[in-house]
Input
Amino acid sequence: MLVPPFEMHVAKSVEDAISLRSKFGDDASFYCGGTELLLVMKLGLTDLAHLIDIKHVDELRSISIDDSGIQIGAAVTYREIENNPLLLADRPEFVSMISGIANLRVRSVGTLGGNLAFADPSSDPATFLLAVNGELEIGSADGKRRIVPMAGFHTGPYQPDMRDNEMIVSIRMPRNPSGGVVVHERMKLKERPNITVAVYASAAQGVVTQARVAIGSIGLIPVRFEEVDESLVGAELANLDGHLKRAATLASDNILVFDDANGSVEYKRHLVDYFVQKVARKAIETILENSNK
Amino acid sequence: MKIASVVNGKRQEMEVADNTLLLDWLRNELGLTGTKQSCEVQVCGVCTVLIDGVPVSGCTTLAVEARDSDVTTIEGLRGTDFYKRAEGVFMRHSAVQCGFCSPGFILTVYTLVNAGRKLSQNEIKEALNGNLCRCTGYKSIIEAAVEVIGAELARKI
Output
């Protein structure tokens, strides 16, 4: 299978990359690991005359952890995340989610920024970041940077909320908050997950005070529902089953899914029901056991 | 783009079109046909090659990514002591049927050995989930991989 001809441009900085993108307009795309873009090009789904290689831009390749949180450059590969001891110590559940993506070779070159910019409906990272209130730093042609929440960044399948002359510079998330727990699970029958659920929960005096349930890889974009999150607040070990059933029912009623090769609407709603209960139970039982200690 | 690259220890300098895939460059330009072509969507692993020791899918990697780098294909491993030992173990376990997937499996096992971390049998299975064997000889392949990785790590310590 051939990739249609194009010209490669190697960007030296974020500004350089954005100015190249502005110059070539819709004829160009940023290029990094190529694990999504080259597939799309091989299938003839896009016709790009210019690729702008951003993987040699230092600013996009750094990982930092400090009091303000965790910041991961858009061109950091999954492999680099897996091998980073500081991330593993601070966010083991994030690193474990990353190490289950696709396969060894995809993780060697695939990047977190690329995954979020491509906005594939099947995304473990996007779902995880939604549960932990992740944010993105977006750079634009006028040199300004803006920070946007992960929630709302994907407006539809393959549709990130960015203008043509913008790019993801870094991905941010809070450090593992004291007292908070995140649990992430996926069900994967083929290369991409059929469903991803990530749940954040915090508690005080044996009662859940906050919950965020993110459901991805099954609908058009990863989603959270306010009423699902709220239905888990107030849960205790004694009444957990009722709260979980209610959350799962609300989630499976609200989710927008379609019949396709991965299953029927009914089957997908069943998956949502099952995994919301399972993952939320794990998160809440863990946090309640911790808060009772 | 003009690229300079060391492929299996041999320096290569040539002009390649930006849209040339690494797999096509290795097979068609350099005649290294040990790297196989199959799924084309980086799922099956038969086109596994190493760039600076890192495994990539040749089918979804541009040849220009090999510039200023060391590329290792299965031909580059042949003749090494590792290869001879691994080949022996794979044969003893009958971990080869048609052999089409073997170069990818051997290169992936090689990178796991080089990572130097002790792996459980389940972790080895997980790490090999991106290499498909259409003869479905997974049981013996996993057994052989576990033995090779265990033995090679023991040699290193």
Notes: Chain A has eleven helices and 13 strands. Residues 265-292 of chain A form the longest helix (28 residues).
